Amino acid sequence: MDVSSELHCDSTAEEEEEKESDDFNFTPEMDRGWSWVVMIASFCGNILTDGITFCSGLVLSELVVTFHESVSKTAWVSSLQSGISMLAGPLSAALTNRLGFRRVIILGSLVSSIGLTTSFFATSVESLFVTTGIITGLGFCMVYTPSVVAINFYFDRKKALATGIALCGSGVGMFIFAPLTTWLINSYGVRGTFLMLGGIYLNCAVFGALIRPVNMSRLERHVEMVRHEEPRKVSRTAINQTTNQFHGEDKRNVGSSDHCTNRSQSSICLTSTSSQEKKRKRDSGFQSHLSLKSVEIIKKSKSQLALFKSPSFVLICISSFVDAIGFYTPHMFLAAYAVGIGISKESASFLISILGISNSIGRIAFGWLADQNWTSVLLLNNASLTMAGLLTAIVPLLTTYEMLITYAVLLGLIIACPVVTRPILLAELVGVENVNNAFGLILLCYGVSGIIGIPLAGLMYDTYYDYSATFYFSGCVLILAGVICYPLGYVNRWEKKQKNINNIT
After folding, report:
1. Cα–Cα distance for residue pair 211/141, rounded to 1 Å
2. Is the distance from CB of 404 to CB of 338 less than 8 angstroms?
3. From CA 177, how far away is CA 353, in angstroms rounded?
4. Which of 151, 397, 440, 480 is buried most deeply by CB count within 10 Å?
5. Smallest Cα–Cα separation from 173: which of 213, 144, 210, 150?
6. pLDDT of 408 above 80
7. Which string of DSSP letters, residue by residue, matches 94-149?
């Protein structure tokens, strides 16, 4: 009776342990099967997140009228939303490490939905700073970051293709949500629009549910096997054997203990010893993980700070900071400018749709172009920033709808270039091993400047009572961002030369 009870308790404990860790026992088949479902889920998440973000300028114009506030003050609603969605990246990453992709995305969709829905009850612009700006922006980051990062754990050889397709959801979202937002405002008013958008964004919870949690240990083993052997030769049995050995589940070694003498004792011993062995390894592994994690965090912090010793990295950080100040102006104020010169609201909102679709096409085109050996990524980056600035600066000279359509097409294509080339450029400047840390700091620069950029552009309107001033301001800022990068090639060559000299001495 005691033996059976002990056996039952051990097996029950083992079942409970397996249930607790069930969320992280899935090992995806890289580059196929469910991996493509994850890519589609990420794509759809980007449609909703970036669609609402980049079309907030349409709502901004209505808020100015509803609350009788200045454009510069009301612009803080959109700027906080876009800025927080980037600044909250470290928090989103920490939650993802703790809870997994699925839970964080579902939680983020609920947070953003609450932020948008409660905006229905806002009585002032200040309350929108909290609901639409901070709460919604935080939820957007909790959806966007893990949904994009998850692709890295489901794809290996086709990772770039899958990431590119997923990020194209941004342009598709602008295409869909520009006319949709205008229709919602006309049908339900600005408060009803917040309520509807809050309900629509709950769909991100469904997309998040499609991203199954990944067992990192098994995944690493699986990726190594796929990389070192022909994919057709890797059998399911081999993968299972490797997985079992990695987790200490090879029962042949456990069952050969000296004190297991007969069949019944052996079964009891097998269950008991296996359970104790798992617990011991889990506890020791957890302690080792904590110590390794602490060392990793310290090293990561030091390596991040060390990047600022690089003049090349400092230059590109400054350029990114300046770039983000002017980047959002066309998205936020193009429709308002078009309405100001006599174009209907429906036609004006379609300019944002055109901007989004051309941006998606541009990301694919520049992604292909940047991969070619005969192209200079630095030259593409500098030229695109300068051309985007020049185009934006001449917007006040565009007085017909056809001219504005041409501007939207060209700008959408051109501003896609820095988005695609910036990570590649960072790899060339600071080395592939530092790209992660460098890109995180670049996003921090984007987040800070993104918060102040839209209100500054709004201040231009409040000062001169003309949207032309906002485009002059934005154009000059984008040109400056490109000019800052002009000496980058020379500075980087000088920096590498100095490093070689120091290494020799």
Report:
1. 16
2. yes
3. 8
4. 151
5. 144
6. yes
7. HHHHHH-HHHHHHHHHHHHHHHHHHGGG--SHHHHIIIIIIIHHHHHHHHHHHHHH
495, 504, 437: which is closest to 310 by C-alpha? 495
Average pLDDT score, the chain: 77
Amino acid identity of residue 96, one-letter, is T
Residue 501, both tokens: 């000299």
CA distance 448 to 296: 26
pLDDT above 80 (res 61): yes
Q: C-alpha angle with apex 499: 493 to 502, nearest 5 degrees?
A: 145
Q: Rounded distance, CA 41 to CA 208, Å?
A: 7
Count the neighbouring beta carbons within 10 Å of the beta carbon of residue 277: 14
Pull the structure tokens for residue 234: 């890797």
Helix, coil or strand: residue 157: coil
pLDDT score of 98 more than 80: yes
Residue environment code for 192-216, b if the CB has 16+ CB neighbours within 10 A, otherwise e: ebbbbbbebbbebbebbebbbbbbe
Please tell me if the domain spanning 21-214 has the same topology as the one spanning 310-505: yes
Note the pLDDT of residue 7: 44
User: Can you give the residue ranges of every domain in the chain?
Assistant: 21-214, 267-308, 310-505
Q: pLDDT tens across 109-135, in order?
A: 999 999 999 999 998 999 999 999 999
SS3 26: strand
Residue 115: both structure tokens together: 């932020």
User: Predicted confidence band at 13 (pLDDT cuts at 50, 70, 90)?
Assistant: very low
DSSP string, 24-49: G-B---TTSTHHHHHHHHHHHHHHHH
H helix count then E strand count, the chain: 23, 0
Give tens-digit pLDDT for 374-391. 888 889 999 999 999 999
pLDDT band at 432 (very low <50, low <70, confident <90, very high): low
Distance CA 345, CA 197 (A): 19
Per-residue confidence band for 318, with pLDDT thresholds at 50, 70 and 90: very high
504 close to 421: Cβ distance less than 8 angstroms: no
CA–CA dist 391, 383 (Å, integer):
12
pLDDT at residue 478 greater than cutoff 60: yes
**CATH architecture label of 21-214:** Up-down Bundle (1.20)
Q: How far is Cα 419 from Cα 431, in angstroms, rounded to an integer?
A: 18
CB atoms within 10 A of CB 392: 28
Query: Domain 310-505 falls in which CATH fold?
Result: Growth Hormone; Chain: A; (1.20.1250)
Alpha-carbon span 37 to 46, nearest angstrom: 14
pLDDT digits over 351-377, tens only? 999 998 898 888 888 877 877 788 888
**Residue located via tokens 């820095």:** 418
